[in-house]
Amino acid sequence: MKSRREFIKLGAIGSAALLTQTACAADDKLDNIETITTDKTAAIKPIVLSTWNHGIDANKAAWEILSQNGTALDAVEQGVRVTESDPDNQSVGLGGLPDRDGNVTLDACIMDHNSNCGAVAFLKEIENPISVARKVMEDTPHVMLAGEGALEFALEKGFTKTNLLTEKSKEAWQNWLKESEYQPQINSENHDTIGMIAIDENGNLAGACTTSGMAYKLHGRVGDSPIIGAGLFVDNEIGAACATGVGEAVIRTAGSAIVVELMRHGKSPQEACEEAVARIMSKHKDLTNMQVGFIALNKQGEYGCHSVYAGFNIAVRHNDFEDMVDAEYELEW
Ligand code: ASP
C-alpha cells in the first residue's frame, strides 16, 4: 500500500496544514513534510469535501452557503445540485448514462445533524433528485421513496419532468449496445457518483449523495448511493462518510456506516477509510474493476479518503484551501 496517511490529519488551520494537504497530490515531496498532530480544540469549520473532479464546482456552491454562516444541510443540497444539473456530467442527474434499456434512473440521499434522512431511488425524469430526497426527509414520515411513487411525490411537490437523456448519453448508450450484447458490466468509466459531506460554522455535519448509478445497469437496479449507511452516513457526534464506486460492494459491507463506526472507535478519518477499503477487498475474491472510494470527515474537521484502485480524488474546500486531493489506494489498474 502507498501509505502517507499522516498528511491528511488536519488539526490546525494555517500554512502547515495547507502544505500538508497540497502534498497529498505530490507524493514524491512527502518525506520532508511534518506530521501534524490533531488538536481537538482547533476544529476546521466550515469545511466541505466531495468526490471526484466535479466536486470542485459543487464545493463552490456549497461554500457560498457555508461561508455565510449557512447550514451544512443547505450547503450539501445546493452543492450537489450543481452536478446534477450539469448536462455534460454523465454519471449524475441530467445527462447521466442510462440503463441498458435507455432509461436514466436516479438515486440520491441526504442526511442532517439530527440523523434525519431522506432518499429517492429509481427516480426518472427529475433533474434534482437530491431536493426530492430532502422533501422526503422533511415532509413525510418515511426515509425512502422509489420509482413511480417517488416521481408522483416529486410532481406533487412541484418538481417538473425533464428528459434526462441527452444526445451525448444516448449516443454513448447506442454505441454500448452494439458491443455489449446487452450485458451490464462494471468498468472504471461507467460510474462516478457525487458524494458531499460538510461541517458548518456551528459545527453541525450533513451529507448528500446523488448518482445516475452504474451505466447500462439492469432496469430497476439501485446501488448504494440512496441507501443510508451504505452510500452515506452522518452521525453528528462523530463524523460523516460517503462512498463512490461499485455500489453492490458498498452495500455488502455497509460501507459508510462502517467508516463512521470506525471513527467512533478511535480511528482517524483516514484510518477508517483504509479499513473500510480493506473490508471490501477481503469480502470480494474477484477484485476486477471493483473500484470503491470512501471519504470521511470527523467532528474536528479532519478528513480522509482511500480507494481500492488508483485514480480516486476528492475536492476539498475550507478557509485556507480549495483544491483536489488524490486518494491513496491499494491497487494499480
Ligand atoms: N456507487 C454508485 C452506484 O453503484 C456509482 C458510483 O459511485 O460510481 O450506483
Bound ligands: aspartic acid
Beta percentage is 15-25%
The CATH homologous superfamily is termed (Glycosyl)asparaginase
Helical content stands at 25-40%
Order of helices and strands: HEHHEEHEHHEEEEHHHEEEEE
Oligomeric state: single chain
For this entry, give a set of tags.
333 residues; alpha+beta; Glutamine Phosphoribosylpyrophosphate, subunit 1, domain 1; globular
Can you tell me about this structure?
It is built from 9 helices and 13 strands. It is of the alpha+beta class. The strands form 2 sheets. The chain has an 8-stranded mixed beta sheet. Strands 7-8-9-10-13 form a 5-stranded mixed beta sheet. Helix 3 (72-84) packs antiparallel against helix 4 (129-139) and helix 8 crosses helix 9 (269-283). Helices cover 30% and strands 23% of the residues. The protein has one domain (4-82, 103-118, 183-211, 219-331): 4-Layer Sandwich (Glutamine Phosphoribosylpyrophosphate, subunit 1, domain 1), CATH 3.60.20.30. The structure holds aspartic acid.
Topology overview:
Blueprint: H1 15-22, E1 47-51, H2 55-66, H3 72-84, E2 106-111, E3 117-123, H4 129-139, E4 144-146, H5 147-156, H6 167-180, E5 194-199, E6 205-211, E7 232-235, E8 239-245, H7 247-252, H8 255-264, H9 269-283, E9 292-298, E10 303-309, E11 313-318, E12 321-326, E13 328-331
Parallel strand pairs: 3-4, 10-13
Antiparallel strand pairs: 1-5, 1-11, 2-3, 2-6, 5-6, 7-8, 8-9, 9-10, 11-12
Helix pairs in contact: 2-3, 3-4, 8-9
This protein binds aspartic acid (ASP).
Question: How is this structure best summarized?
Answer:
With 333 residues, the protein is an alpha+beta fold. It has helices at residues 15-22, 55-66, 72-84, 129-139, 147-156, 167-180, 247-252, 255-264, 269-283, and strands at residues 47-51, 106-111, 117-123, 144-146, 194-199, 205-211, 232-235, 239-245, 292-298, 303-309, 313-318, 321-326, 328-331.
